[in-house]
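Example 3.2
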Amino acid sequence: MSTERMPNPAMLVPGAMQALMDVNKAVAATGLDGKLLALTHLRASQINGCGPCVAGGAGQARHHGVSTQQIDTVAAWRETPWFSDDERAALALTEAVTRLADHADPVPDQVWDMAAKHFDHKELAALLLNIAITNTFNRLNAPTRQQAGQW
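Structure, written as tokens:
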């Protein structure tokens, strides 16, 4: 286990953590299902290897009633029967948005169209903001080696 390099950068810059938390609150206030927000947070955090966010995302998922099977298999969601069509659309969007640089067409029409089939513009906005803020936290925690369980 590596040790923390420095405190979380958002804690060191006055107002930064509050601003990030305010985005989380705004996303939650849209009314989008907390299960979807938790699953997308967990999946993006797994991709980015962010220990604190994977741990927090799993806890958030349990809090919102995500099944044990879903939490255990979200990294392999395509190969399991435990995800609904809207959850699959949200997870595909999460993976595409999190891995923007991996493809010439970062979010292919097929992924976007599937998400747009299940979510209206406000819901898509909430999903995209949730994915973006998760990636922000991942990109603050991973390079500074923040440790899970030390919040």
